[in-house]
Amino acid sequence: MEGQFSKQVEAVFAKDGPLSKATENYVPRASQIEYACSVAEALETGESLVAEAGTGTGKTFAYLVPALLHSGRVLVSTAGKTLQDQLYFKDIPAILKALGMGARIALLKGRANYICKLRLEHACEENAAKSREEVVHLQKIQRFAQQSETGERGDIVDVPEDSGIWPEVTSTADNCLGNKCEHYEDCFVMKAREKAKEADILVINHHLFLSDIALKDNQITDFLPDFDLVVIDEAHQLLNICSDFFAEKLSLSEINSFLKDVLVAAGTLSGEIVVQWKELTKSVDQSMKDLLLTSTNILQDTDKPIAISKFSDARLLVEPMQRLLSSMADLSDALLQSKDASAEAESCYERSAKFVESLQYWTDVFSGKKTDSKVPIIHWFTLRKSTMNFNATPISFSEKLNSARDSQGKPWVLTSATLSMNGNFDHFVEEMGLEDAKTKHWDSPFDYKSQALLYIPDDIPQPGVQDFPDKVAAKIWPFIKENQGRAFVLCTTLRAMETIGKHLRYYAERDDLPLKILVQKEAPKQELLRQFKESGSAVLVGSMSFWEGVDIKGDVLSLVIIDKIPFPPPGDPVFDGKCDFVTAKGEDPFKKISIPQATMHLMQGAGRLIRDHKDLGMLMICDSRLTRRNYGKVIWQSLPDFARTTRMDVAFDFVKEMAAMRKEKS
Q1: What does the alpha-carbon distance between residue 522 and residue 543 come to, in Å, rounded to a whole number?
Q2: What residues pair up with 245 in beta bridges, in sequence order?
Q3: How far apart are CA 113 and CA 78, in angstroms?
Q4: Residue 70 has pLDDT above 80, yes or no
Q5: Do 380 and 405 lie in a common domain?
Q6: What is the pLDDT of residues 122-157, one digit of tens each?
Q7: Domain range spanning residue 316?
Q8: CATH number of the domain that residue 524 is part of
Q9: Same structural domain, 555 and 438
Q10: What is the pTM of this model?
């Protein structure tokens, strides 16, 4: 029976309700109203909800309206900055205005998004800039910090995001001095977090949300218990973020950064201590170089993740790791003796002690000693040109999430357009520890059958042949040419992306077609998207970062091409480790892991095509396994309900018709 609160929520979405008066061309959507009432029910019963809502459902308003009407505090976590900004600057103010309500709103980002005044001072004093360009960047940041109220690095538009100076002027949880810092009372991070504590509606990102759960950042004051509702938007991304976040990590780059901070701290002291610290940092630095050299001689291949359980030469790295451990322990002992000399010295000692503990752990792992853990751990490492990264990734993180939800005692709403496989939520809820949550699905209100065609060519080789990307490029070119660009080409690997991009540029030049071919990595993502939109007839070739979080409406994007089913790559230590774990339990890892993950990714890629009820377009997936294999048909059924064909002539006629309709409109 529908409760009184649900009726109140439903009235807001009525044809003549508050939203209709505040929203231009407002049309009530049954799926949106049902979604909102489900959130209202979760608030009333305290039960968590996993809500999958197709594109165009209006899920943001659907969860915000009941949350605000309930007069409680709401925490909204998103995966990306784009949605964070949309919620904070647009959606929440619009709903509050429509409801005639007032509320304190805060947008909180991770500490790396705020300038650290102390580290900025040190960067200027120590000449941290490594090039003339970075000198200019540092000067701009210094001027900005003197004038800014918030200290948000995103407000400095003329310093690139990838400038090497940013790590020098922002803090981490490890190098922050907390209340012992001389700038603590005027710290940008602390001011932002004080504002967050007072907010009725707080918008954060998934990394900050997980920091609160794991208490990895000791400056976060346990936000979760203070909120009556937690909404996790873009929840499908939480799976990969959790896997990465709950891993215990050690990086030689991190140690190198720590050594720089030790030298900065030494600059505030005098006498024999300074000489001793400098000599010991040199010893640690040399030990790291020895470890890198030994690893390079053994492996020769860089950037390839390696599972330690399958690394036959693991014991050859034990001795250089023990030397690094010993030199770090010596430095830590020296820092302990002088830790009361300054706040910086104390911070350096605490960090050194953590490094000693971590290096001991990894020395034991490479020695083959067993490590204590409630959950099975996958140990792996990556060798790069000037660093090594060590990772201990848990097989499962569901227990941590479940424990956080239980301790908070309030409902969570996890939402996305892609959480299930053909209506089956098992994979997602098991991974997230949400077996007790209600699961609901609402289809998109778009008329997919009349708005889009899904074309699976049946005359293309199956993936796996050596020249598959070349054949994909040749197959898709006639459609891109006929459509005059206006296309996304989404690839599953960087190699395929580069190969297809090169071929498309050759075809455009050969056919004398003035078509702009944009390829990922040749410019920042937002710049490529800006050029794509402004051109109006470009082709953008990208890999996984373009499969989601991109919202382009209208004729500028009417053709989305995907090279193949995005199965997890073999050889990834975490994926292989999870497969081994599932196999040991007597289950099929292909059905349990590979198919659900591939389906989620494919649904995200397909979702780039139709973003509005007026959109028209074709989705082309160059993988005949979708129609020829039994598992392919399962994946096929999870995709939007487009009209479908395997015939080239039908697909080509559809693209020709789209081109003719555009010509008529112009």
Answers
A1: 12
A2: none
A3: 16
A4: yes
A5: no
A6: 888 888 888 888 888 989 999 999 999 889 888 887
A7: 248-394
A8: 3.40.50.300
A9: no
A10: 0.88
